[in-house]
Amino acid sequence: MTHIPADPAPLMHLPVLPAEVLDALQPAPGKLIVDGTLGGAGHTRLLLERGAHVIGIDQDPFALERARALNLPGLRVLEGNFREMNTLLSSIGVTQVDGVLLDIGVSSFQLDDAQRGFSYHTEAPLDMRMSQSGESAADVVNTLSAEDIASILYEFGEERHSRRLARGIVAARDQEPILTTTRLAEVIKRSYPGGHARGIHPARRSFQALRIYVNDELGALREGLNAALSVLAPPSLEGHGGRLAVISFHSLEDRIVKRWMKTQPALTPLHKRPLEASDEEQASNPRARSAKLRVAEVRPPRDIASGSGWDDEETP
Ligand SMILES: C[S@@+](CC[C@H](N)C(=O)[O-])C[C@H]1O[C@@H](n2cnc3c(N)ncnc32)[C@H](O)[C@@H]1O
């Protein structure tokens, strides 16, 4: 491991929807909860404060280093991808838990640490890997065909100028490989019709797309949901089992969570619509603005004919 974040002081991560997550997972002494996205341990601290034991999983070795340094009593830390949660848990002899939390995406630690290459504002190596293994964003933009790059920008960034931007990227890399965040941002800006996107930085959607692709975020989410379900406690005599709480930040993720929860006969959703942050929270934590929390509980198999309990309105 070569990179240590320079200054830990600005690296604060405010957990989103804190009250809603506590209400969903009902931490208490004697309960065991998995935080599949430990990050800055913001949610984990809240769960621990209420007496639960927490197993914190993260694929980012730097996040784990920081979390271990906190020495939080009741927290056990595991390195890995939450898509393999069941295997990771069974490696420490745990087969069943009372709750699982997934707070998808990157943390402010990762975004604010320029060297990780997630931000188009600061010059850094074009990396974007949370786990520090596998293909980096630089590998992707310098080796894939224009067609494949366009598909990534379109599918994961909903970038409508994907083909044009991909052609711009390939033309630029033919001159010189694209190795830094700022060069990629500049290439995208130059290729963008009129040089700007309405209301947002022209590189924003493309950076999001590359990050999702590099970390296979949607694949991990799909597998992580199934892995979580496989470790949640079955219903007690009163009919209540383990709970799964998932926070997502854009419609691609929320759609996956919503559709998956809808099709699991073992799960009952707790709310008809996803929970969102209050105006107050949105004002104090910009990251909370796009957060959506969906919660479901393991219950005895539902009567399919009685309906799923979900609103049928599609997530945009
Ligand atoms: C949004 S942050 C979580 C913040 C945390 N809830 C808090 O309050 O501090 C997401 C974290 O999950 C990690 N992560 C994202 N996808 C993951 C995956 N598939 N497996 C394991 N960790 C993942 C990231 O490395 C990051 O540290």
From TrEMBL:
Gene Ontology MF: a single term: rRNA (cytosine-N4-)-methyltransferase activity
Reaction(s) catalysed (UniProt annotation): cytidine(1402) in 16S rRNA + S-adenosyl-L-methionine = N(4)-methylcytidine(1402) in 16S rRNA + S-adenosyl-L-homocysteine + H(+)
Gene Ontology annotations of biological process type: rRNA base methylation
One GO CC annotation: cytoplasm
Cell compartment(s), UniProt: Cytoplasm
Keyword field contains Transit peptide: no
EC primary class: transferase
Keywords: Cytoplasm, Methyltransferase, rRNA processing, S-adenosyl-L-methionine, Transferase
CDD domains: AdoMet_MTases
EC number(s) recorded for this UniProt protein: 2.1.1.199
One family name in Pfam for this protein: Methyltransf_5
Disordered: region residues: 269-316
Principal localisation: cytoplasm
Cited function: Specifically methylates the N4 position of cytidine in position 1402 (C1402) of 16S rRNA.
Family: Belongs to the methyltransferase superfamily. RsmH family.
Name listed for the protein in its UniProt record: Ribosomal RNA small subunit methyltransferase H
